Predict the structure.
Amino acid sequence: MNDIASALTSGGGVTPEELQQLIALGRAKGALHLDGVLEVLKDLDLTPDIFLGIQAWLQREGIELDESFADEVDERRTRSSADAVGVDAVDADDGDAPSVPERGGAKLHTAPTPRSKAPARRAPRASLDDDGGSPLSSDYVRMYLKEIGRVPLLSGDEEVSLARRIEAGLRAVTQLAAHAEGTVELTPLEVVQCNRQRRDGDAARDHLTRANLRLVVSIAKRYGGRGMLLLDLIQEGNLGLMRAVEKFDYTKGFKFSTYATWWIRQAITRAIADQARTIRIPVHMVESINKVKRTQGELAQELEREPSIDELARMTDLSPARVREILRISQDPLSLDSPVGDEADSNLGDFIEAVGADAPPDAVISEFLGLAVSEALSEMGEREQEVMRLRFGLDDGQPRTLEEVGREFGITRERVRQIESKTLAKLRHPLRSEKLRDYLDEG
């Protein structure tokens, strides 16, 4: 594990603490889910060597890598899903599941193809709810699926051929850059040949990307119901696919779709973690939330009422306190500017009491009282005004003691008391007190 651990932590994408927690979790459970692994590796560059190293290490440790997609969408929602936009018309690949050649006498664990016949439960699809339920969004999905469906799937030999052309194009780019810097001399004919190879490499990269866009769709639709639109999930997956095309090494012996699946799922899970919620929730907590929510729905259907915390705790093998925490974390924040009512003429914030704040009438009275006191004090001497403002906290709401005021002016506390008494006597004069008397609370 030392070599792969060093590779994971030296790149700066994984901290030693995160890696130790991942190892401990895998050893304790005997298995790790791919989404959980990719959450830890979300900022790591998944080179082919790291890709193979992780798989080989898991095999040596006897830790199974669960690459299935979590069934996180209620079964009733999945039936009103991507069929409406034709998402199931697109599959990632035909034929057998991609596999990695045997190394060291054992076959590495590989990702299942999206068209797997093994699962007993139907995997969730991206529903129209994930696209806001708008017909316009559905039309965009149909148009996109129709466009990517025109590109034929690739065989293993065709993938290798494209990868070689990409590699030749990159070599040509390197030569042209060195020629531009003056470190390498190229004849005009060689420059033309390098430009031709560069363009051919770009075309091969584009072809390999387009031929695997259906793989992105088949993966993205499994992450429906997590707070992001299907089109956004596809877009994030496409970014992961393009990174996989850049990093793919055909000499390692594995099929491109096997390698690309990790990049695509890494990009999608990272986007969901960073963008789906206003307050980011780690992937492992999302899995716990989905488990509790799914159990809550099943119990509600079985009991024909909302299950209690204790019932949820028994069914999920969690403590009641943990269930309460998970349900609290699962709550979505609401904006105070959210419209309320059919006409949306008021906001949610209009109906929430500001606890501790003065009622509007009291706030207006306090403001006018302050103005009246300031006007009355303006007829006093400058020192008298300052003493009264400090003594009663008229400016900052913090009254001072006689001693504190005395230190402020360098006088005794007795002198401060005399100034205070004299000023109050002046304010009680009928000509001045008449304006303030209306503010007295007579109740």
User: Anything to note?
Assistant: Residues 2-154+212-276 form one domain.
